[in-house]
Specification:
Bound molecules: glutamine
Strand order of the largest sheet: 5-7-6-11-12-10-8-9
Distance between the termini: 7 Å
CATH superfamily of one domain: Amidase signature (AS) domain
Largest sheet: 8 strands, mixed
Strand content: 5-15%
Number of strands: 13
């Protein structure tokens, strides 16, 4: 049984841990051991991690302490974090939430994992996720659902639900996530933490198991905007192993945190503020905009006329790319292979039938259909054209504003099982986030209040291409004036 603990937990930020390590107030081994203890206590109830390996984590922590002693520590050396199980990590089981990869130990590191390791960060484990990142509730994972630490009868959002719940419950100070249609922002909103999906191409996809390659993007999840910037500084940067990785000079994403917001133009798209969102999300979102006005920002009405098409467009394009990407899982080279089969074709069929769950199969079927001869022009090409129109809507809107704001998710966290029987209801969880992926823009979610039942609400901030530093500034200034991001769930005990 899970019960609420009597007092609220307090949050710990990456910056606080980094400061304590730098001041010699604690060692990385001590910090890491504290998190391992907490994981051991709570992970069974919450389901945040698929794999933990304390010995591996502590070995990294010891190396980080030695590096610090040698005077070679970087900003985040010795600081622990969790990686979504979509990132290959050498020697770690890397499942992508699927039975298909239930026995797959990665032989190499994803770019993101390599970057964090090179910085000297400590991997606490691999977090639970919707199977192949397809879902908005973390219920499609082969390894069972993740529970929302604010109310364990509710979902944490998805697909980066394990990362989000781990940060919210204090089982990691920060985590990596990926966002194809909302999978960083929506779970961040539902668990009361911050998450940032960078501009497409800013963070290398090398070693990140592909879902829909033209939309997939990795990003940081943490308690504060400043922590997101610290982690993005480590994760971002050119990588020749990903052909869509952008070649840009390195930047400090936290360089503008302290800038005042006077004169900032906040675009409020008419289409974001229609009937779609629940009353409690609306109240918190409106209050956040009012707070921004107090900080000197100006609201401007803008319009994204094609936004209503983003969910249907996404559910043509993402399954099309997924059906192609997932064709590699055939039971031959790695992953699940059926125990019994006849000829080669039969082996493919049985391995794929047994290795993939229902949602993944649904996407493969849709994707194969829209790409097939006779339907390609009617669906796939048409969706590509609409994708361009959606991107143009944003370009037009950004002529009148500096950032766009609105809700991240139409509702707060829903109950486990509430939407599992109705895929379309589940798909609509991403109604405010998907257009941002289609346009390749950066988007983030920060906590902005609580709705019915004390459940967190997230505010979405969308920036123009490569405007991450400004978005972090905008989020940080709000976090100086409010304390929503400092609230923690009352705590869950096993
Ligand atoms: N919920 C969306 C989907 O199921 C988005 C997932 C994601 O961003 N990875 O496809």
């Amino acid at each position: 049984m899970l019960v609420a603990a009597p007092s609220a937990m307090s949050i710990t930020t990456l910056q606080q841990i980094a400061n304590r390590l730098a001041a010699g107030e604690c060692s990385s081994v001590e910090v890491t051991q504290d998190y391992i203890n907490k994981i051991n206590e709570l992970n069974k109830s919450l389901g945040c991690y698929i794999t933990i390996d304390a010995e591996r984590s502590l070995t990294q922590a010891r190396a980080a302490d030695a590096r610090r002693a040698a005077g070679k520590a970087g900003a985040l050396t010795g600081v622990p974090l969790a990686h979504k199980d979509i990132f290959c990590a050498k020697g770690w089981l890397t499942t992508c939430g699927s039975k298909m990869l239930g026995n797959f130990v990665a032989p190499y590191d994803a770019h993101v994992v390599e970057r964090c390791d090179t910085e000297g960060m400590v991997t606490l484990g691999k977090t639970n996720m919707d199977e192949f990142a397809m879902g908005s509730s973390n219920e499609t994972s082969h390894f069972g659902p993740v529970r929302n630490p604010w109310d364990v009868t509710r979902v944490p959002g998805g697909s980066s639900g394990g990362s989000a719940a781990a940060v919210a419950a204090g089982l990691a100070p920060a985590a990596t996530g990926t966002d194809t249609g909302g999978s960083i922002r929506q779970p961040a909103a539902l668990t009361g933490i911050c998450g940032l999906k960078p501009t497409y191409g800013l963070v290398s996809r090398y070693g990140m198991i592909a879902f829909a390659s033209s939309l997939d993007q990795a990003g940081p999840m943490a308690h504060t905007a400043a922590d997101l910037g610290l982690l993005l500084n480590v994760m971002a940067g050119h990588d020749p192993r990903d052909s869509t990785s952008l070649q840009r000079p390195a930047e400090d994403y936290n360089r503008d945190l302290e800038k005042p917001l006077k004169g900032l133009r906040i675009g409020l798209p008419r289409e974001f503020f229609g009937d779609g969102m629940s009353a409690d999300v609306r109240r918190a979102t409106d209050a956040a905009i009012a707070e921004y006005q107090k900080l000197g920002a100006q609201p401007v009405e803008v319009s994204l006329p094609n936004m209503g098409l983003s969910v249907p467009v996404y559910y043509v394009l993402a399954p099309a790319e997924a059906s192609s990407n997932l064709s590699r899982f055939d039971g031959v080279r790695y992953g699940h292979r059926a125990a019994e089969y006849g000829d080669l074709l039969d082996m493919y069929k049985r391995s794929r039938a047994g290795g993939f769950g229902a949602e993944v199969k649904r996407r493969i079927l849709i994707g194969t259909y829209v790409l097939s001869h006779g339907y390609y022009d009617a669906y796939y090409i048409r969706a590509q054209k609409l994708r361009r129109l959606i991107a143009q809507d944003f370009a037009q809107a950004f002529k009148a504003c500096d950032v766009i704001m609105g809700p991240t998710s139409p509702t707060t966290a829903f109950r486990l099982g509430e939407k599992s029987a109705d895929p379309v209801q589940m798909y609509l969880s991403d109604i405010y986030t998907i257009a941002v992926n289609l346009a390749g823009l950066p988007g983030m979610s920060i906590p902005c209040g609580f709705g019915e039942g004390g459940l967190p609400v997230g505010l979405q901030i969308v920036g123009n291409y490569f405007d991450e530093a400004r978005m972090l500034n905008v989020a940080h200034q709000y976090q100086l004036a409010t304390d929503w991001h400092r609230r923690a769930p009352r705590g869950v005990t096993a």
